[in-house]
From TrEMBL:
Molecular functions per Gene Ontology: L-amino acid transmembrane transporter activity
Transmembrane segments: 14-36, 48-81, 102-124, 130-149, 161-178, 198-216, 236-255, 275-298, 333-354, 360-380, 392-411, 417-437
UniProt source species: Companilactobacillus versmoldensis DSM 14857 = KCTC 3814
Chief place of localization: membrane
Entry-linked Gene3D superfamilies: Amino acid/polyamine transporter I
Domain of life: Bacteria
Keyword set includes Ribosomal protein: no
Pfam families noted in UniProt: AA_permease_2
UniProt xrefs under InterPro entries: AA/rel_permease1, AminoAcid_Transporter
Protein's UniProt name: Amino acid permease
GO cellular component, one term: membrane
Length: 446
């Protein structure tokens, strides 16, 4: 495989502003509204809550810049899957695709469906017994909608992107200036009721990372940019800085408008803050906007997730390749891949909660992220003459910072949530026998 083998096949017509909107659209999802409950539970104070959002943004910016060099040097379709394959070979790349298929996308769909159900229950004053049925109905419905074709799924994404910006802008723009009975003090930075400051800082930092999910794909447009040397890094830096600013400001509004004691563990905090700011009717309208935003996020994971196992099947890289490569007759979208993804997501809805599922997907994906950060050093040494349209500024600081941040997330999860980490690792390693069994039969049939 040559690093530039697909570069000439990509149409380079993407400028800076489309790249910037892509970065922001990929990252901003349901986490902006709902991770505040777990972040505040971990930090124990408003001051430390703001600090961990800033820390997470700093780590993510450095991670994004690191991936940008890989993306510009390897402008091939497939994104992070292809980066891992190019640097480490087919087996780690398969395990990444396997994890994306059985953990990452189903867990994201399940987690956000649970959040959606909670918001519907809160909005309509239903009992908790409706949570799982609503989440399952939504999951199946969006799978069915995506069977109508990529154009339908893409239209939903366009509407949802606008919808997600409306409640964010309203909550920040109005919430900052609305008087509040809850004084917020940012100095000194303390862990509040938490017994250990550094534990609270680390746990809060890990809790924020689902809200930044999507940053790993920010370099995927490198091969389609007119001027990646100039625009790629700029779109990533500005995009992730703006995203961090959005997260900091909206978190500030939440802790300003609501008594801090009611936010930890409260997945309705965003809706309650909206009602506090805009009144009962206005708050419910904003809550509907939040629901549409989450709906769009689930649709995005549903639409893109099915393509991973489909590509494995199409390329004959997985057991039952023909099964996973099957498309619908009319709309030509992955059918069986979508069915399996939906079944796994439904199982996860029964088994997990929002935070547990998001922690699992963050843990697994950061293992491969650290591998990519290290891969920048490997490629710099093994292929110094590789064409790099974008080279990391202040190298080697950004990849070192990204490696430190990613390694912390991985080991912190192993220490704090050993069962979750063990489960994630076991599921990952289950891909190995499937890989080797498939290749044994594949080679035997030649």
């Amino acid at each position: 495989m040559k690093a530039e083998s697909e570069e000439s096949n990509l149409k380079r017509d993407l400028g800076f502003f489309p790249a910037l909107s892509t970065v922001m659209g990929l990252v901003i999802g349901g986490g902006v509204f709902f991770k505040i409950s777990s972040v505040t539970a971990a930090t124990g104070s408003a001051s430390l809550t703001i600090i961990v959002w800033l820390l997470a943004g700093f780590i993510t910016i450095n991670a994004g810049l690191t991936i940008a060099e890989l993306a510009a040097a390897l402008p091939v379709s497939g994104g992070i899957f292809k980066y891992i394959e190019y640097i480490y070979g087919k087996v780690p790349a398969f395990l990444l695709a396997w994890d994306q298929s059985v953990i990452y996308y189903p867990a994201a769909i399940a987690a956000l469906s649970i959040v959606f159900a909670n918001q519907v229950i809160n909005l309509l004053n239903l009992t908790a017994a409706y949570r799982i049925p609503i989440a399952i109905i939504l999951t199946v419905f969006l799978f069915a909608v995506n069977l109508l074709g990529a154009k339908v799924g893409g239209s939903i994404q366009s509407v949802a992107f606008i919808a997600k910006l409306i409640p964010i802008v309203l909550i920040i723009a109005v919430g900052i200036f609305v008087p509040s009975d809850n004084p917020v003090s940012f100095f000194p930075v303390t862990a509040g009721s938490q017994p250990n400051f550094w534990t609270a800082l680390g746990t809060g930092f890990v809790a924020t990372m689902f809200a930044f999910d999507g940053w790993m794909n920010v370099g995927n447009m490198a091969g389609e940019m007119r001027n990646p040397e100039k625009d790629l890094a700029k779109s990533i830096i500005i995009g992730l800085v703006l995203i961090t600013l959005v997260y900091v400001l909206i978190s500030f509004v939440f802790v300003k408008e609501l008594p801090f004691s009611i936010i930890p563990g409260n997945q309705n905090a965003a809706s309650e803050a909206a009602i506090k700011i805009f009144g009962n009717i206005g708050g419910k309208i904003v809550t509907i906007g939040i629901l549409i935003s989450v709906f769009g996020s689930i649709n995005g994971y549903t639409m893109t997730g099915t393509r991973v196992s489909y590509v494995l099947g199409k390329d004959n890289e997985i057991v039952l390749s023909k099964f996973f490569a099957k498309l619908t007759n009319k709309s030509r979208v992955p059918l069986n891949s979508g069915i399996i993804q939906t079944i796994i997501a439904i199982i996860m809805i029964f088994l997990g909660t929002f935070d547990y599922l998001t922690d699992m997907l963050v843990f697994v994906m950061w293992i491969f992220s650290v591998m990519m950060f290290v891969g920048v050093f490997i490629l710099r040494k093994k292929e110094p003459d590789l064409k790099r349209p974008y080279r990391i500024n202040f190298y080697p600081l950004p990849p070192i910072i990204a490696i430190i941040g990613g390694t912390y997330i991985v080991f912190s999860t192993i220490i704090r949530q050993p069962v979750l980490a063990f489960l994630g690792i076991v599921i990952t390693l289950l891909g190995l026998p499937l890989y080797y069994i498939h290749y044994y039969h594949k080679n035997k049939s030649k």
